[in-house]
Design brief:
Blueprint lengths: L1 H7 L2 H11 L8 E3 L2 E3 L3 E3 L10 H6 L4 E7 L12 E4 L4 E4 L8 H10 L5 E6 L10 H12 L5 E5 L14 H16 L7 E5 L5 H13 L4 E4 L13 H7 L3 E4 L3 H14 L6 E4 L5 H9 L4 E4 L1 H6 L3 H11 L1
Parallel strand pairs: 3-4, 3-13, 4-7, 7-8, 8-9, 9-10, 10-12, 12-13
Antiparallel strand pairs: 1-2, 5-6, 6-11
Helix pairs in contact: 4-5, 5-6, 9-10, 10-12
């Protein structure tokens, strides 16, 4: 990414990169949560945590970028090593732990950035913040980022911050989301507010979230985050055990995340927009998520394994269909 940054700082090279990696077509333009997306292929949160590579990611064709997860205070994240590839499964296990520069530094960087792309802000709580005070952390992040991003995603579904997933329970979640919507509605221009959900929810928990999303008038859901499951992996059990805790992403997540997209879409009659994320590597994977009811899609692990041409390949295929 730093090499890409150096190249895009030279106008001639940026032009060459854009020509080779971007694909623009009117049929790809989408209006979702009232925002104009030039194409439906975004980069999921957790890659550009600190908004360091906006120009570079825009140059290689992404339709939108979700930065973060951002927390109120800077934090180093979990001990290294904390990122592992499972080559046989085309998967990644990470336990990064919301490592980021803190919301003030990220907001300053966003304000000074020149960009022509939709930016989402994925927000979370600091590890040291108790769950009963978590709403305060989300409130701080929303206020700091309000003028420099296009939509918000509340992250209560990462498995890498102790106790965070407990905030997906209806009562805890209602307090956070209601508070954020109060702030949102108090502004002149409201911002779309989304919730990122785990793939490991029970049907009952999922129903609670759908009900709450409608009650507090969320703009949409991101489905899904990484999974704590290790079922059906080809990688040797000994190696998986040695890696230990963390969220699994990539191809093993594809079916589970698609099922959740489909369930949410069916239960809401398609009225609650969903960003589909999990196991998207090919144009066929992308079409599967969209057919399941996703309005937009995000890649992350697929971007790592397939390389920067993944966006163009998907967009070309979608335009042909």
């Amino acid at each position: 990414m730093n090499s890409l940054k150096r190249l895009t700082n030279i106008p001639a090279f940026q032009e060459i990169l854009a020509k080779n990696f971007q694909f623009n077509h009117p049929s790809l333009h989408k209006q979702v949560f009232g925002l104009p997306f030039k194409n439906p292929v975004g980069l999921g949160a957790g890659f550009d945590k600190n908004a360091l590579y906006l120009k570079e990611l825009e140059t290689i064709g992404f339709g939108f970028i979700e930065i973060g997860t951002v927390t109120p205070l800077p934090q180093a994240g979990n001990d290294k090593p904390r990122l592992f590839r499972l080559h046989k499964d085309e998967a990644i296990v990470n336990r990064m732990g919301f490592n980021n520069d803190g919301v003030k530094a990220v907001a300053a960087r966003l304000r000074s950035a020149k960009r022509n792309i939709i930016i989402g802000g994925n927000i979370g709580k600091n590890k040291a913040t108790a769950n009963e005070d978590a709403w305060k952390d989300y409130e701080i992040c929303m206020n700091e980022l309000f003028d420099c991003i296009d939509y918000f995603v509340v992250n209560v579904s990462s498995p890498n911050t102790p106790g965070l997933r407990e905030l997906q329970e209806k009562s805890s979640l209602k307090k956070i989301l209601s508070q954020l919507q109060n702030i949102n509605q108090g502004r002149i221009n409201t911002k779309p507010l989304l919730l990122k959900i785990a793939p490991d929810l029970t049907v009952g928990q999922l129903d609670d979230i759908i009900e709450l999303a409608q009650e507090v008038k969320l703009s949409g859901l991101v489905a899904t985050n990484t999974t704590i499951s290790r079922e059906g992996l080809r990688t040797e059990e000994e190696k998986v055990s040695e890696i230990g805790m963390g969220g699994l992403s990539g191809k093993p997540l594809k079916q589970k995340s698609t099922q959740i997209v489909q369930y949410v879409s069916k239960q809401t009659n398609g009225r609650l927009p969903v960003i589909g994320s999990g196991g998207i590597f090919t144009p066929e994977d992308a079409r599967e998520k969209l057919a399941a009811g996703a309005s937009l899609i995000q890649v992350w692990t697929g971007f790592i394994y397939e390389g920067p041409a993944i966006v163009k390949r998907i967009c070309e295929d979608l335009a042909r269909k």
